[in-house]
Amino acid sequence: MSNDFESIVGWAPENKSLTTERAHSGRYSLKVDKDTEFSLTYDVLLGKLSAKRLRGVKLEAWAYLPNAGGDAKLGLVINAPNSEQTILGEGIQLGEQVKKYNEWVKVSKDIVFPPNAEYMSHMKIFLWRAGASAPAYIDDITLTPLD
């Protein structure tokens, strides 16, 4: 899976997290700030993501932080089938990987799925402000299966 946020314009409801203020590629990225706690969310059944059971994924994206105050989190959550019960809550704390400000920096993390993540489990990916005091931007998200 990959998304540069260009193709969702017009398909998703209007959301102030989808912005043209900055972009790594194209015109759009996702942004969180003091007025936006969570970005648009990617929500998919694990069984729709891959025909075979995944051991996990490498989550990659490009992040832009204006300063250390933009320490938001790119979250990945897996919920149990037909439930909001979280069976995995992981992600990338942007401030741990972004050390250059006012430029796009590639971030990544390998995430191993728990044994109870199954075909009907929902995986969600989103940008979360998580107490950041400055804006944070994310673009060009990619998921690659772990071998």
Structure description:
- 29% of the residues are buried.
- The longest helix is centred in the first third of the chain and has 4 residues, at 46-49.
- The protein is mainly beta and 147 residues long.
- It is 5% helix and 42% strand.
- The strands form 2 sheets. Strands 1, 2, 3, 5, 8 and 10 form a 6-stranded antiparallel β-sheet that branches. A 4-stranded antiparallel β-sheet has the order 4-9-6-7.
- It has a single domain, classed as Jelly Rolls.
- It holds the Pfam family CBM_4_9.
- It comes from Hymenobacter koreensis.
- Keywords: Hydrolase.
- Residues 2-117 form the CBM-cenC domain.
- This is CBM-cenC domain-containing protein.
- Name of the CATH first level: Mainly Beta
CATH superfamily: Galactose-binding domain-like
Count of DSSP H/I helices: 2
The arrangement of helices and strands along the chain is EEEEHEEEHEEE
Secondary structure category = mainly beta
What's the β-strand tally?
10
What percent of residues adopt helix (DSSP H or I)? under 10%
Second-tier CATH architecture? Sandwich
Mean pLDDT: 93
Q: Would you give the CATH topology?
A: Jelly Rolls
Strand content: 35-45%
Number of discrete domains = 1
Low-confidence stretches: none
Question: How many whole angstroms does the radius of gyration measure?
Answer: 15 Å
Protein name: CBM-cenC domain-containing protein
Pfam families: CBM_4_9 (PF02018)
Keywords: Hydrolase
Domain CBM-cenC: 2-117
